[in-house]
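Aim 2 progress update. The chain analyzed this quarter is reproduced below.
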Amino acid sequence: MERIEFTSTGPSETMALGEYVGRFSEGGDLFLLYGGLGAGKTQFVKGMAKGIGVAEWRYVVSPTFTLMNLYEGRFSLCHVDLYRLEGEEVEGLTIEEYLETGVVAVEWAEKFTWWRGGIGVHLAITGEDTRKIVLEVEHAGRAEVWRNFSRQSRKDP
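Predicted structure tokens:
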């Protein structure tokens, strides 16, 4: 597994990284987002929606109360929030169905651990506006694509 590290200095950079990740996402990708309240998980998913081509990406919000939001772009993006759920409730979501037709992004993925082979996205608050974002990617070719963004973002002021 490869770990690719990024530093975001604000919500727009977190969203830009999500957009880049979304642009190179493939149907069947499962993104497991970890991080505390305010770490930027929803901003990252909003960027993914833009990268996937969701026309209404600006309206992506955390599905804390609805549990799941579905957006359509070049393929579907199923956005799940497990914050308010417990074990048995999570099992009833059947997100596997959404992986057949698109991408799934799960906020608070640590609430349920049956997922294997997902792409880990760890967001940590390191300052008022700064975040450390680490992608954990098993597929070497996919890691290379996202590693290139990491190199590019370090060069750009």
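Residues 140-155 form the longest helix (16 residues). The mean pLDDT is 85. These observations will guide the mutagenesis experiments scheduled for the next reporting period.
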